[in-house]
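REQUEST
  id: r-88c1
  op: predict_structure
  target: GPR158
  payload:
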Amino acid sequence: MLTLLQSTVISLHAADADREAVQLSLEYVSRVEQSPCTGGNEETLDLIFNHTDWEAYIKPAMFTSKFVTSVLLENNGSLDSLTDETVFSLLRSIVNGQNTIFGSGIALEPGVHSQYASFAPYAYHKNGTVYIHDIALSYNYQDNNNVLWYHNLKKRNWENATRTLSKTKLRSGNISLTEKDTVLLTTKIENGFWTKPYFDCGGGDIWMVTYTTPIFSLDISGKPKFQGVAGVDIELTNIDINQCDPDTSKHNALDVFRGTHRCYATTECRFLKGQGFKRGAYQCVCSKGYYFPNVNAQVKAFNGLEVENASDPTPYKCLPCMEGCTECVDDSPCLYQFMLLFRFPVLLVTLLTCIGIGVLSAVTVCFRNELISALYKKEDIKRANDTFKTEYDSKYLKTNTIEATPLKSVGTQTYEYAASDKRSKMFWTSVSKLSLNSQTRVEPMIDHLPLPNCENNKELSF
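RESPONSE
  id: r-88c1
  status: 200
  body:
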């Protein structure tokens, strides 16, 4: 249990150290972006990279190493059989037309080239032109142990270098010469040396990483002897730094920068391809359920470089959508909003109207007789009702059996028919009837009678 705890603590410390190294590297990238360099390449990004994606670019270095090793083995460790122009042409052809390979060169031990104590031809391209020269004239790579791309390989033991037998038949005129056995010495890709990414100040003024592989000959005892290196400089200018969250579905050599973005919690990191070896190559877009504060902005995302340069990333945050909205572009509601200030007056007017209608209906029902009495003189209405009751207590209504059924008037209701001539006023009287036999109710019979002429004292008639 204690061992497990100790290993966990060590892992956490290692993770913290890795994160700190990444942050320091990003700060270095930032310094290079903001300040012109003064020459040299001593500062590097202190990170461990996955070089798998770059292995396709180091094949020229492997080829150059095998070619020069083969020449040395054929000439007892001497390169004098090759002219400088031949070597320069070889290196020039590697760089020409290559965008990713910035430069290619070799660096040899003293005595390999009899004319020079040190020989390090180097070809590179810049602004569409290929340049080549011997950097040994201005750069002491042999005695400077800090030149890791050279001395790291020189210090190794190469006794177990891969040996391959080669059988060669040369030609002389039209005659094939006797077959000759030759031993070739080679190494694997993983036996080469990768530098950490660095900014080449004063040279290409670009970010690059260098790969070198050893050049051999055989000593007197037949053991492999280190005679120099062949290498290529891989340009990182066009390789993006992806600071967004890790993608487990695929990997990249620069995945060490993953997860170092500074997007706020309400936003998500979106990687921008083609930005090159620069920090801030991303956008902070709003997460689901949030919207961009500037609704009129053409690009609704925060610029990653601005977020990186900001001392406080808090202002670069999105605003939450209204309740019930999974996605939105502004603060418009997605659910019905209960607005009491607008609804209360309408509800109050409606309620008062309903109460008023109810009160008016109750008053009308309770005082309906008084309303009719108010329209006519009481004695006229009484006389009309009495006359109707006397003469028409019973009437006969035909039924479906064509029989006369005696009916009895059980109640009347008198209504006024308003006419322009007061003498033409009529009373409409609804008479409810009951059958004398079965006491069942039948349809009401409607009669009418004229307004009684009280002055002439005439009888009512139907």
